[in-house]
Specification:
The protein folds into five domains: 171 residues, Rossmann fold; 244 residues, HAD superfamily/HAD-like (Rossmann fold, 3-Layer(aba) Sandwich); 193 residues, Rossmann fold, CATH 3.40.50.1000; 236 residues, Rossmann fold (3-Layer(aba) Sandwich), CATH 3.40.50; 253 residues, Rossmann fold (3-Layer(aba) Sandwich). The protein has 1270 residues and is α/β, with parallel strands linked by helices. It has 55 helices and 37 strands.
Length: 1270
């Protein structure tokens, strides 16, 4: 569950509160004084409010010394407001994880006082306003401008000198590029930031009061790219936010949101969506105790505390008696004899305080309180120690059950008591028989007994040692093993080591952890239902490790100094002197944090976390990290000399915890002081208890080079990408190999992704090229097009070899071709490849699986990369195919000779497949692809015998779509392979359409107000289908009449609404405008106007949708439009659609000769007599036209594509067997007239209603419903 990457920016005055806060607060304190001061500056439209309010508060202190800071705070707290707008803030932050900030020309003190009073301080991450502080012992509130005199002028001519909100917004967006910005404003000062918003953003302008912002937006449309929405009350903002976030970011809804999300529809009614059903069974979380739940071995901790000498004998004792509870029972006897003062109660008090890693307790509480998990402990420790710790940490209510070696209290002869540890699996019982476990306890059998007693939907097991391997081996693929890794000395913990040594035994995904932060992060990722599968790094050679330094690398600051810059800048002045006397940077930071806690008692742990979480980050840096982890499946880690609290706080805020597999840094945690306050403690990663690392390049607390070695020792990465900046990264860089990279590639830097906007089908579609994507052998066909005799000569030499090395043969051909035909250029070869014969349907199949369902498409072929790429680029498929695996090519001799090299070259060991040619084994290629990412499904589309090998290589289920040549082989396919037959490209397209209907489309249609049956169910039966298009803003993407005047006489556009109010018939209005155009622009002939309008924009794939409906499904396509016949006819002809449109029904247009001999366009209404339809204009009733069409001919179904209110009438005439495609704005789904009218009159629509916004939507929906009909 991620967070909505949305910035919601609120103005304060007349938005979050209903008044001008400065004036309202001032009048509550002294109305006469504020009127006097404010009147002096009233004439200045760009009044410096900071200066004015500072003057007011100085005079207030003189005239009313009895007024205290509490009086000012109370006045701010009583500012009038709408409860709904405060609920809107809570909704976007608490329910969807959006970022909320306030930018205001009021004062920080006033805004913060209001927020704290109403419990919104935590929801608003930043308040940008004029700064405030108290002087004269707290008697005088001083106000300083946000943009003070110490800064260069901001340069904005429209804003006051003290604050430019546009500059503020630019600064915020430089720190993080949000996927979308919503700006809620009301005053003239909100216009400047509105001009900084992008096309996907939204500005909300208040339309009550003086409408200053709304007026400016309407007067300057050329300066605004964002969508504009009006609002009057807080209820409007809340209703819009409910709609917007539920529709656009439903997947980001936080687990602590209310059980049902109520959201307002356009007509003001409220509806409740059905909550997502929970998984069957509860979630079970199992902890090992020693070195897992706690950060020590509890037995060693006890003896180390009371009898260190005895503790040193533990391993020697275990060698003689290899049962730990028996060893420690004997040692407790010695402890009782030699240290009689150590009572069981003293042991309880001591062991209760055993160290536990930061956030580990939070992780347990989150699992139970937030996700309803059952938490149990299975440990080879003992119940006394474990229960003592749980009681002390107040976890007894959270941990439901403890399975450990039991403890008894034994009374000695002298009256004292001692602890006795008994084995969990008692000696008198039959042996448990597990070869993995010690005789006293089999954790695996305990786990089995737990699961036999109750069905759990998932088990998450947290462990570290070899004893945890047995229960890990009992888990399923739906469960998760969290295995501790990476001791400072480089040796892995026992659980991970045993997993590595016994591959295939543990079926559950294994995810590493090192700190409590890791556990917290993993729980947040793997506990929520529906469960996600961990993205584990496969333990095979070939995966990539990406290591980020943190300070000045992943972030654009030094996090250590940033915290003091924000919270205690005076301390930074002592930093240089501290460095002279203390060489350890970690110790300096720890000391300074102690001073911070002592001097600034009001600074809480939450304030520290919040501050460091918002450290500046360069544009695209986080996108690059996500790209590496989510797209390329790299193992991303952070190695830093900062500390865990700073780094984890940022990762949590930015939603990156699931992308970063491990954070290796100095451990930090908050420590409670004697006075009850907390301070942050930072400890060195390489502590004093460990042997010095001895690196001359690195500080004593951390050697990054050694850490890199440990990481590479634990896993054989094929490459390491290291991102760093400072001298501390040099050592790590020296430990990299020639296959590693010390900087991020350009592709990572330029990555710009909006993640989470849709779900892609996790399917790999692998196409062969020859006799599949093209209808011929591409090598032979290209060669024959260049020199048929030459290719026959060369090919005949190798014809006898069934496993011909095609790379070697084609290389020989191109070398000889250059000798015999030096005039042949690379363009000739490219043209031959581009002209390879193919089936259009199979290319449409590629577009379908990638564009419509987000599947991954690759090509594997024994042809050449140059030939395949040339073909793909020519047919516009280069972006759809993510990888071409073929024999490599390059040009030599100044581009005259194309050289071909085998995919599996001589520099590699032989692939060893007996069925494939030496230069390429497609089976080996497929294995390599699946090692990089385990797809949920693989579809292999092949055509030749060489495509049999890859179908045998997949361990999970695979579908082979094969031509007859493969099916006729004597070999039998493995049981896991499903085989589908195809002859033509149409077969492949049909098979893939059927298959992908089980996956959601990349642009899931948003639900309409009314609930309808799925269109694939509604649309069944036989008979011809009628497809009806509206023209303006439906078939084409503009209003054709307006488009003409925007091109040739834009001034006339401004008079449209006024003219329409006087004459509410659009063809009459536009006819008048054509008369004016002819008089004022005599050089504009009808031919020139029509030629320009013919090129009216049409959305991508809209033409393809029309052609598909006619050519593939035999539909009849008509246009019903309130445009005009002349413009529609010209546009259809220009876009090549005229042959596909059966009929156009619209207002008639012709050419009229005027008295001066020139001609002009003349428009006539469609209906000779006015229509009496209450829904339609008098000149055109689309509903009656549709009725007349259906009365003349029976159609099985009607598909109606429209956008405006004029399309409601025909939509109301359709039946339940028909479909209405209603255009919806991509921002909120409610801006076009047809959908609005449907929402207001839901009972009048019987047909299914499907929203659309792009030509891709129409193409996809047509493919779905028309295919269902056939």
């Amino acid at each position: 569950m991620g967070r909505a990457d949305v910035l919601v920016l609120f103005a304060f005055d007349n938005v979050l509160v209903d008044v001008d806060s400065d004036i309202h607060i001032a009048r509550a304190l002294d109305a006469d004084l504020v009127n006097t001061i404010w009147s002096k500056n009233a004439a200045d439209k760009k009044i410096d409010r900071a200066k004015t309010m500072d003057e007011f508060f100085v005079e207030l202190a003189k005239h009313h010394p009895e007024v205290t800071h509490e009086d000012i705070r109370n006045a701010a707290q009583r500012l009038p407001f709408s409860q709904s707008i405060l609920d809107a803030v809570r909704l976007v932050v608490d329910d969807f994880g959006a970022t909320c900030k306030i930018v205001s020309d009021s004062t920080v003190f006033g805004v913060r006082s209001f927020l704290e009073h109403h419990g919104l301080a935590d929801q608003v991450s930043e308040v940008v306003a004029n700064s405030t502080h108290f002087e004269d012992g707290g008697k005088v509130l001083r106000v300083r401008p946000y943009h003070g005199n110490h800064l260069a002028p901001h340069g904005c001519r429209n804003c006051p000198n003290n604050l430019c909100k546009g500059v503020v917004l630019e600064r915020i967006l430089q720190q993080h590029r949000y996927a979308r910005v919503l700006y809620v404003g009301g005053d003239v000062g909100d216009f400047c930031p509105s001009t900084k918003l992008a096309a996907d953003d939204v500005v909300f302008a208040r339309c009550s009061g003086e409408n200053e912002l709304l007026t400016l937006l309407n007067e300057n449309p050329d300066q605004i790219q964002a969508h504009i929405r009006q609002w009057k009350t807080g209820e409007d903002v809340l209703a819009y936010f409910r709609n917007f976030f539920y529709r656009q970011y439903a997947e980001c809804r936080q687990a602590n949101a209310s059980d049902t999300l109520i959201y307002a529809e356009q007509d003001g009614n409220f509806s409740v969506p059905t909550p997502m059903p929970r998984e069957i069974g509860d979630l079970l979380v199992v902890f090992d105790f020693d070195d897992s739940l706690v950060n020590e071995d509890s037995d060693v901790f006890v003896f180390g505390s009371f009898h260190p000498e005895l503790c040193q004998t533990a391993y020697e004792r275990h060698a003689n008696k290899p049962i730990w509870p028996s060893v420690f029972d004997d040692m407790l006897q010695v402890l009782s004899t030699e240290k009689p003062h150590v009572t069981p109660e003293l042991i309880r008090e001591t062991v209760a305080q055993i160290p536990i890693q930061a956030r580990m307790i939070d992780a347990i509480r989150m699992a139970v309180d937030l996700f309803g998990a059952e938490v149990k402990v299975i440990s080879d420790g003992n119940t006394f120690y474990i229960e003592s710790m749980l009681q002390h940490r107040e976890l007894s209510e959270h941990v439901k059950e403890v399975f450990a070696n039991p403890v008894e209290h034994e009374t000695l002869d002298d009256g004292r008591t001692r602890l006795r540890i008994r084995p969990y699996h008692a000696d008198h019982l039959d042996p448990h028989g597990c070869t993995w476990c010690p005789t006293n306890m089999c954790k695996g059998s305990i786990l089995d007994s737990i699961r036999n007693g109750k069905a759990y939907s998932r088990v998450i097991y947290v462990g570290d040692g070899t004893g945890d391997f047995c229960p890990a081996s009992r888990l399923t693929e739906n469960d998760v093993v969290l295995a501790r890794s990476h001791l400072v000395n480089g040796n892995p913990y026992g659980l991970q080591r045993r997993i590595n040594e016994n591959p295939g035994i543990v079926h559950a995904p294994v995810v590493s952890w090192s700190t409590g932060y890791d556990i917290y992060r993993r729980f947040a990722q793997f506990c929520p239902s529906p469960y996600v599968s961990p993205r584990t790094i496969p333990r095979i050679s070939g995966s990539v490790l990406v290591v980020f330094d943190y300070d000045w690398s992943l972030i654009n600051e030094n996090s250590d100094t940033f915290i003091f810059q924000q919270l205690y800048p005076e301390l930074l002045g002592t930093l240089r002197e501290r460095r002279k006397t203390q060489p350890s940077w970690t110790k300096i930071m720890d000391d300074m944090l102690g001073v911070l806690a002592e001097d600034k008692s009001d600074i809480t742990p939450d304030m520290i976390r919040d501050t460091v979480a918002r450290v500046p980050i360069q544009s695209h840096m986080l996108d690059a990290l996500r790209l590496a982890a989510e797209i390329y499946n790299a193992d991303v880690k952070i190695v830093s000399d900062a500390n865990s609290v700073y780094i984890e706080s940022m990762l949590e805020l930015r939603g990156l915890t699931q992308d970063v597999n491990e954070v290796i840094t100095n451990p930090a945690s908050f420590e409670t002081l004697e006075n009850g306050r907390s301070r942050l403690r930072v400890r060195p990663y390489h502590g004093e208890a460990f042997e010095a690392h001895g690196c001359e390049w690195c500080p004593t607390n951390m050697c990054k080079g050694r850490i890199v070695d440990i990481l590479r020792k634990a896993h054989p990465y094929s490459s390491v990408l290291y991102v760093g900046d400072g001298s501390g990264d040099f050592c790590a860089a020296t430990h990299l190999t020639k296959f590693s990279v010390r900087k991020i590639p350009t592709g990572f830097k330029m990555a710009s992704m909006k993640l989470g906007t849709h779900l892609n089908a996790d399917v790999l579609v692998l196409f062969a090229f020859n006799h599949t994507l093209v209808d011929v052998d591409s090598n032979v066909h290209i060669a024959r097009a260049l020199d048929a005799d030459l290719v026959n000569t060369i090919w005949s030499k190798n014809a006898a070899d069934k496993k011909i090395d095609r790379a070697k043969t084609m290389d020989e051909f191109f070398v000889e071709l250059a000798k015999h035909h030096p005039e042949v250029t690379h363009e000739d070869i490219r043209n031959a490849a581009q002209r390879l014969p193919f089936s259009q349907s199979i290319l449409d199949a590629v577009r379908l699986v990638v564009d419509d369902f987000g599947a991954t498409c690759k090509i594997v072929s024994d042809s050449t990369v140059f030939g395949v790429r040339s073909f793909l680029e020519h047919h516009g498929l280069a972006d759809q195919v993510s990888e071409v695996v073929a024999n490599s090519t390059h040009f030599e001799d100044g581009g005259k000779v194309l050289r071909v090299r085998p995919y599996h070259g001589n520099h590699l060991a032989p692939h060893g497949c007996r069925n494939c040619p030496n230069n390429l084994c497609k089976g080996v290629v497929l294995e390599r692809i699946l090692q990089q990412h385990r797809y949920s499904k693989v579809l292999y589309v092949g055509g030749g015998i060489e495509d049999f090998c890859p179908s045998t290589k997949v361990p999970n289920d695979i579908t082979v779509i094969a031509r007859n040549e493969v099916l006729s082989l004597p070999n039998t396919f493995p049981d896991t392979v499903q085989v589908q037959q195809w002859k033509a490209g149409d077969d492949v397209l049909s098979l893939l359409r059927n298959f992908f209907h089980q996956y959601p489309s990349k642009q899931v249609a948003k639900a309409s107000v009314k609930t309808f049956s799925p269109i694939s169910q509604v649309f069944s039966g036989s008979g011809q289908v009628l497809v009806v298009f509206d023209f303006d803003e439906s078939l084409v993407n503009k209003d054709s009449d307006r488009f003409a005047f925007q091109c040739f006489h834009p001034e006339l556009i401004k008079t449209l609404e006024e003219r329409h109010a006087l004459n509410p018939v659009w063809p009459s209005v536009f006819d008048e405008l054509h008369q004016i155009l002819a008089n004022e622009k005599p050089e504009l002939t009808p031919e020139l106007i029509c030629a320009r309008v013919a090129q009216i924009p049409i959305q991508n794939r809209m033409v393809d949708a029309v052609r598909m409906a006619v050519e593939q499904f035999g539909a009849e396509v008509k246009i019903i439009s309130d445009g005009n016949s002349l413009f529609i006819e010209k546009a259809l002809k220009f876009h090549g659609l005229a042959p596909y449109i059966n009929e156009v029904l619209t207002n008639q247009a012709d050419l009229e000769t005027m008295d001066n001999g020139r001609t002009r366009i003349r428009l006539r209404p469609h209906h000779d007599q006015p229509m009496n339809c209450s829904w339609c204009p008098s000149n055109l009733c689309k509903g009656s036209i549709l009725d007349s069409i259906r009365n003349k001919k029976q159609y099985s179904h009607v598909l109606y594509v429209g956008d405006g209110i004029g399309d409601f009438c025909p939509a109301s005439r359709l039946t339940k067997n028909d479909v209405v495609f209603a255009r919806a704005d991509e921002v909120d789904g409610r801006s076009y007239g047809l959908q609005k009218r449907i929402d207001s009159n839901p009972t009048l629509i019987k047909a299914s209603v499907v929203p659309w916004n792009t030509g891709d939507d129409i193409y996809r929906h047509f493919a779905q419903v028309l295919h269902a009909q056939t």
